[in-house]
Specification:
The complex is a heterodimer of chains A (468) and B (244).
Chain A lengths: L9 H9 L2 H23 L4 H17 L1 H14 L3 E5 L2 H15 L3 E4 L3 H5 L2 H7 L3 E4 L2 H8 L16 H12 L7 H18 L2 E4 L3 E3 L4 E6 L3 H7 L3 E7 L3 E2 L2 H15 L7 E5 L13 E7 L3 H4 L15 H5 L1 H6 L10 H12 L16 H5 L6 H14 L5 H14 L2 H15 L3 E2 L2 E2 L9 H4 L2 E2 L6 H8 L1
Parallel strand pairs in A: 1-10, 2-3, 2-4, 4-7, 5-8, 7-10
Antiparallel strand pairs in A: 5-6, 6-9, 11-12, 12-13
Helix pairs in contact in A: 3-12, 16-18
Chain B lengths: L5 E4 L3 H5 L2 H13 L3 E3 L9 H5 L3 H14 L5 E4 L2 H14 L6 H10 E3 H8 L6 E10 L3 H6 L4 H8 L2 E7 L13 H4 L1 H17 L4 E4 L2 H13 L5 E4 H5 L5
Parallel strand pairs in B: 1-2, 1-3, 3-4, 5-6, 5-7, 7-8
Helix pairs in contact in B: 5-6, 7-9, 11-12
The chains are: A alpha/beta (468), B alpha/beta (244).
Amino acid sequence: MSETDLSVPFRRRAGSALGDKHLQEALTIATTKFIGLRRDAFDEFPEGERLRDLAREIKEATLQHLHRYVEQLIDSVERLGGHVHYATTPEEARRVVLDIAARTGARMAVKSKSMASEEIHLNEALEAAGVIPIETDLGEYIIQLAHERPSHIIAPAIHKTKGQVADLFAKELKRQVAADPEELTRIARVELRQKFLEADLGITGANFAVADTGTVVLVTNEGNGRMVTSLPRVHVAVMGVEKVVPSMTDLMVFLQILAKSATGQKLSVYTTLVRGPRRPGELEGPDEFHLVLLDNGRIRQIAGPLREALYCLRCGACLNVCPVYRQIGGHAYGYTYPGPIGILLTAMLEGPGSVKDLAHASSLCGACADACPVRIDIPKMLVELRREIHEARIAPWTERLAYGLMEKVLASPSLYRWSKPLARLLQRPFARDGRIRSVPLAFTEWTRTRDLPALAPQTFHEQWPTLK
Amino acid sequence: MNAPVRAALMVTCLGDMFFPEVGVSVTRLLRRLGVTVDFPQGQTCCGQPLFNSGYHAGATRVAARTVEVFRDAEHVVVPSGSCAYMVRHEYPALLRDTPARAEAERLAGRTYELSQFLVRVLGKTRFKASVSGRVTYHDSCHLLRGLHESEAPRILLKNLEGAELVELPGGDECCGFGGSFSVRLPEVSSQILDKKIRNIEATGAACVVACDSGCLMQMGGGLGRRRSKVRPLHLAELLAGDER
């Protein structure tokens, strides 16, 4: 599996993405389409704004008493004959799944799309244990063939053009195909059909789990979620512990805004509700059902500065509208969760030190907070992360010196006044006709593509007396 | 206008140092409307560059000073959406645990971005354009999504005598400035700007208008480098013709 090389600085990773023509083409097409579809969906849905507020309130209230809802969920699932496992770390979560696989003699696992399973690097662990993981979501199937990682929360292969997918199929499946999405889908469907029947283990994520009924909810578009949860002997769902919702009534609120935010659909094509293993008399469903609740730094953040990030529904809307994500795609970020919410989740899962550069990968334009179905104030938390990073003194000393100087100047009107003649003197070699086309130090790169305005011959402060 | 209105101009650091003509236009415009304009001398910058980069202790010091400088102002007018947003929304939070808290909240309630002050406080919507022809408008992020203001500038632009407003495709998308963002990730910032400029040029407008010197610095810097015919213009400069 090709990983993003984190030893390459973020700015260079981003730079490579900017120069990747295929990536640029794919990103522009897909994000523009998503933005339009989302806008139309909410335009046609006047109660959407109220439901977004309501959804946010439900998330907030649920987190207030998360332990209680988690206990209720565990009771409900167990009453249905299922098993619940609580994993504090990714290692524990992998261990739980591998133990189930070993005990049931599983040789092959079919998977429906799950970011939680990406988060714990489950596929590599399964392979190492001799269990073949097969991704069955089309996008995930594509990137599994390409030995890559998802670059978007809901559209894992968003970085690939259809031409690239056709080339990939030709190489990996040894057949010539046209760059036609329908044809490509048909091929994948034929390849996957047999796997569904062969697999012993079905592994899914979960969009929600309902505490009082024990229902695990999967929102998909391809129907693969149904196959994965009904054909294999054993079903394992891996879910971030914060995704529990109190009741079916609450669930309905989220279902009304999730697909609209993600893909602009009123509802996704399939909403699969799973309640435990197959019961006597039922025709389909697994013999065993396991729910793995993953903490991995989440519980700690209930009382932490990133608390609001726990509201996230994983719809991907903030990625689609983010001017940075739209230019660099998901892989450049370097972690499981890309985009604006991904920076927060990375800080949550890996610690704030891991995002010392990523925390600045935002112009703070606020488009993410605007698009978020539960109105997570992402820019505010990015600034908060920047504060933590500054206070941990991990920023370069040159930067800290520059900002220290800035503070001194801005906090003192006389220093501020005297800095201007000094700046005028310093800019003299570079300024021409009120413009600076090239300048050393921090602004060198700025002026590679843009002119900087020169300090005015007379500042407003200096002009004011003549304006009276 | 009955009782004379008094307003203090917060010219902003970029406005003071790089675009003084914006402050001059605001002063002329407001005076023509009968507003008495003050310019408190102790002002420097709202502290947003420090705040956005996480230097909150410094930002708090600058904010406390700014609150003091504008203590006596009846209204504060800021020709910049992001600085107005900083004062209105971040100051009360930054100064929450300081003696300046009450004063910060009072300042937040009296501070207006220019277009909002003209339309929502003064009720003035009809102006003569200082340039003729087509103009297009870029929604600055903090004005649009921070102060939730997309109407006031458009009311002013649509009523302009002598100029025609054409909507900018993707006008609500960031220009790629973002303060320190444009310095830290210059390549990403530039590529976001490329797209913005392509959209601007496609409108066929003679100038692109914005209510924020940061965006104008970014868009103007890119247009200038390309030797584009499109002129970046602050709303104040466009309105500084005669009131109708």
